[in-house]
Every structure is written in C-alpha cells, then in structure tokens.
Amino acid sequence: MNIVFNGSDKPTLGVEIECQIVDESGALATDTAATKILPNLDDKWFKHELLECTIEVITDVCQNVGEVRAELGAKIEQLIEASEDQGYRVICTGTHPFSSWTDQTVSPDPRYHRLIENCQWTARRLLIFGVHVHVGVRSGEEAIAVSNALGTFIPHFLALSSSSPFWQGRDTGLASIRSKIFESLPTAGLPYQMENWGQFQRFMRTLIGAGTIRSIREVWWDIRPHPGFGTLESRICDGIPTLDELCAITAMTQSLVVWLGERYNSGLDLPTHRAWTIRENKWRAARYGLEAEIIRDEEGNLMSLRRSLGDMVEILEPIAERLGCRDDLLRVNSILDRGTSATRQREVFGRTHDLSAVVDSLVTELKEGVRPLPSMDMVGGTVVHGDPLQGE
Predict the structure, then answer these.
(1) Which domains does the chain possess?
(2) How far is CA 136 from the centre of its chain?
(3) pLDDT digits (tens, 9 = 90+) for 71-129
(4) Cβ(282)–Cβ(237) under 8 Å?
(5) Which class for 85: exposed (0-12), middle (13-18), buried (19 or more C-beta within 10 A)?
(6) Angle (CA) 389 286 293, round 5°
C-alpha cells in the first residue's frame, strides 16, 4: 500500500473546533442534542462527534488567518443561534467543569460505536474537546521533518490553550486534564519521530495490516501528517473559548510550520528534542500551564515557558507579517498577560464557588470574548493540588 501525500504549494489553513452543547443549568446536554440541532445547519461544516453533547465546526480551506476568523465567526454565530432555538447554549473548552461522561449519549455514527467497542473504558470517558489546525506543506518528506521539530513546541501550544482544569466537578490541579485523558487511547498522544516518509508509510501499513486501525484517521497523535489533505495537523490544543485566542494560536501554528519548513528546504538544522524530553515538557505544560519551566536542552537546563513563548513570537513575527497574520500572532502576548482559560475559570470559581457560574462565563466568552481582568485577581496561577469542591 503506497500512501500518497497530496502536497500543498501554499501554507493553507483548515481549522476544526469541538463545541460543547449545554443546557440552561450549565450541564452538558444528555439527550440527542446534536441530532436535534444539526438539521438546522449546513452538514458540510457542522458534524457529529463521539457524543451527542458535541458539534464539530469545520472551516473550508483558507488562505490565511483572516479567512479563518471570518468563517469561524460566522459559523459559531450560526451554531449558537441554532442551539438557542432548541433551548441549548454553547461553550468551547477542553473539558466541561462538572458533567460526567457516564451520563452522555453516544452519537449514531457507526464509527463511534466501533471505537467504543474496541477501546471500551478508554473511549467511553472521552468527554473532552479540542481544536485541530491543518497547515499545508509541500511533501511527505517535509511533513515528517517539520512534524519531528514541532514536537519541541507541544508544551507551548498546550499551555497557551489550556482550558481544562476541572473534571467531573473537581479541580484536578492541572491546567489541561484533557491532554492526559486523551493519551489513554492506544493511538493518541505524542507522535513517534520518523526518519522519513517511507518509514511513516511502513508504520501505517503495519497498523492497518494488524487491524489496529482502519485508516490514518484513527491515529490521533498530537501532531500528524494528513496525506489526503496535504497538511500537517496539530491536535495538541484544548478547546479554545474565544475567537481571538483561537486566531492567535492558529497564527502561531501557521507561522511556525512555515518557519520550520523554510529551514528544512534551505538545509538548515531544525530544533528537536529527545522523546523523553518532549514527554516531560508536555507533562509540565499540562500540569502548570504558562507557569511551567521546561527543559531547554539535553543537559537538563530549564527556562520559563512564558519566556520561551515570548521568544517564539519575536522570531515568528517577520513570517507572520508576510502571511498577513501579525496582529493575530501578537495576541499571544495578550494571553501571556491575561492568562489562559484555565486561569479565568479558576478566577470565576474563586469568586462564586459555583461551577455553573464558570459555564455561564464560558458561554459569554464565546459570544463576546475575554473580559478585562478583575481587580486583585491573580494571573496565570494554578493550585498546588487537586482540591475538593464544596459539598465533598
């Protein structure tokens, strides 16, 4: 079996976001919510996901981040309107603050029922929500080289998008519990580092021949080549609750892939870490978010993830200028200043001691964006341990 990579001459973009459907109380819908809502939307751009409390929103192939913003802005508005007509609301974060996976209804697509049959408990508890960004690359060889280098930046994207501090009504002590839940699937988590496109093909042939997967679509690595689309797909990020933050992270993704691709095609070295360093850095980002200190070299020297992100923005700014997404890239600095969704969710809970109020704030953020920082509140903080909530 020869896997052909349909390369792209331009760094085109495609973005997929998994949105949560919640009821008036703030709980995730436990009925057939998606099945009720989807007939009122264009089925080319709005899809079922694993559970009926989720609707995936998909862009067309976009040339730049501006097109992504326009498309997603309009589609999110459509989804919110169609959901509210049915008595629901919409949020986008890595996990829901308090609803349980045991209460959810599985979507009717046979593909998802096969997944649950094959993976059992590890698939049943996938009450998690992410954002996927595709960037066009020229060839399979370039895709492998850039994918290997992108592993170095997994903690950067994970920390910047971290929005899943709560799980089933409990503060986990992590900035992103979603990333740890997803890793339990047999073909999810950190990508293997491949030598070239041929080795990637051999690996996929092994998995398909053994019946582990039916197609490459069932490999859910944090970063994966998508041969059919001719893209590198970043699957690292938690659900992102505002359009500005989403476009900032999309701009960083596109700019970084272009920067790495140009270095590869010029014969320059690409930044890479050993697999064990990438794994440790990903854990630090999941645990501490923007407050993490990550390993910068194989001697174990550390650096602030915040500082590393600031350095990245500075390096990528000329690329972003050329791609037309400089303003969006610079919004990464606003996230560093204000804190991520994980921070904001903890701020709301700290004031209200009510996880329903956290959901209300997320509903508002998807519609209106991030509100200014309340006075006397911390930025970027994380609890030291998983604290029980009121009533436990």
Answers:
(1) 13-368 (3.30.590.20)
(2) 18
(3) 999 999 999 999 999 999 999 999 999 999 999 999 999 999 999 999 999 999 999 99
(4) no
(5) exposed
(6) 115
